[in-house]
Automatic annotation (TrEMBL):
PANTHER family: ABC TRANSPORTER SUBSTRATE-BINDING PROTEIN, THIAMINE-BINDING PERIPLASMIC PROTEIN-RELATED. It comes from Cupriavidus yeoncheonensis. GO terms for cellular component: outer membrane-bounded periplasmic space. The keyword Ion transport does not apply. GO terms for biological process: thiamine transport. CDD domains: PBP2_Fbp_like_1. This is 2-aminoethylphosphonate ABC transporter substrate-binding protein.
Length: 348
């Protein structure tokens, strides 16, 4: 009996030791995970897929997203310049990242596989301070059912939207809070010149019912019929159309404002090795295959798929876009826009 008792005690001790070792190992692995703070304006639909795929490929790193709309993230990063909290910025507009670059806040880094990417969608400097992921462009969401009820013709151009028939029927994103709103404004100013660009926006303002704080919301409003016309972008337009909303996608003939979702590493990160691994992965074919779930144009050639409602010559419709100019003139443009149109901002 004594020997049996000893054997039982030894077995229990061994089991406890195994459990303790396993717990210690698990705790050690958890402690070894590096938390990477990533500021983003990515659509919430996409964030989970990026996090899961990156962490599967890099199990020792945990992505901690800090998300808001483009303008809010940009303002927060600039406000934190003296004490930066982000390690990486991903899924933010290239026009915003170019501004951060001009402020000396980004670390130049060429990720692995960069030579494979379409260079036209990344910083022109070498090494680049920001690297493109995908492109998004202006799209008008037009609810054909509501429009028919109201007797509204289908617009084909930006300038069509200034016709009196559309008075009070249009919603548009606020350019200070929405990257989509800002790409619209800067595209109009670059396409027509500043004098004619502001004249167009003055006329458009007469027909705008509301400026909202999201690039997605105008298309969602068009989908529900709140306003039959929403100036938005193709990701959300494609999504609401796919969900069955009676929305037509219109790509105005004069040209489309566009921007690039991109990745950049903060110069002040205390985790440079992990930040570079994140940048490497975001430039990979695997990441670009995730981009292609929603975007008709991605940085990795040959990965994008045909999306319903997006024309084959989509890229050829992009207007001229100088990111450097958009970044340098951001404060001036937003101040002028606000002085003219702030009265119709949602919630004011």
């Amino acid at each position: 009996m004594k020997n049996a008792s000893l054997r039982h005690s030894a077995a229990v001790a061994a089991s406890l030791c195994a459990l303790a070792c396993a717990f210690t190992s698990t705790t050690a692995n958890a402690q070894q995970k590096t938390s990477l703070s990533v500021y983003t304006a990515l659509e919430t639909d996409a964030m989970r897929l990026y996090k899961e795929a990156f962490e599967k490929a890099n199990p020792d790193i945990e992505v901690r997203w800090v998300r808001d709309s483009t303008g809010i993230v940009t303002a927060r990063l600039l406000a934190e310049k003296a004490n930066p909290q982000a390690d990486v910025v991903a899924g933010l507009a290239a026009s915003s990242l170019e501004l951060l670059k001009q402020e000396g806040m980004l670390q130049a880094y060429e990720p692995k596989g960069f030579a494979t990417l379409n260079a036209g969608y990344s910083d022109t400097a070498r090494p680049p301070s920001w690297v493109g992921m995908d492109v998004w462009a202006a799209t008008i969401c037009f609810n054909r059912v509501e429009a028919q009820k109201l007797g509204l013709p289908k617009p084909e151009t930006w300038k069509d939207l200034t016709k009196p028939v559309y008075k009070g029927r249009i919603s548009m994103p606020h350019p200070a809070s929405s990257g989509t709103g800002y790409l619209d404004v800067t595209a109009w100013l670059q396409m027509w010149g500043e004098s004619d660009g502001w004249k167009f926006m003055d006329a458009l303002h007469q027909n705008v019912a509301q400026y909202v704080h999201s690039g997605s919301k105008p298309c969602q409003q068009a989908a529900t019929g709140e306003f039959p016309i929403g100036i938005s972008f193709e990701f959300r337009a494609h999504q609401v159309r796919k969900a069955g909303a009676p929305v037509d996608l219109i790509f105005p003939k004069e040209g489309l404002g566009w921007d690039v979702e991109a990745t950049g590493i903060m110069k002040t990160t205390k985790k440079p090795a992990e930040a570079r691994r994140f940048a490497d992965w975001m430039a990979s074919r695997e990441a670009n295959q995730i981009h292609a779930n929603w975007w008709a144009v991605v940085a990795y050639p040959g990965v994008a798929k045909k999306l319903d409602g997006i024309p084959d010559d989509y890229e050829q419709r992009f207007a001229r876009n100088d990111f450097n100019w958009s970044a340098k003139n951001r404060a001036r443009i937003l101040a002028e826009w606000s002085s003219r149109y702030e009265s119709k901002v949602a919630g004011r």
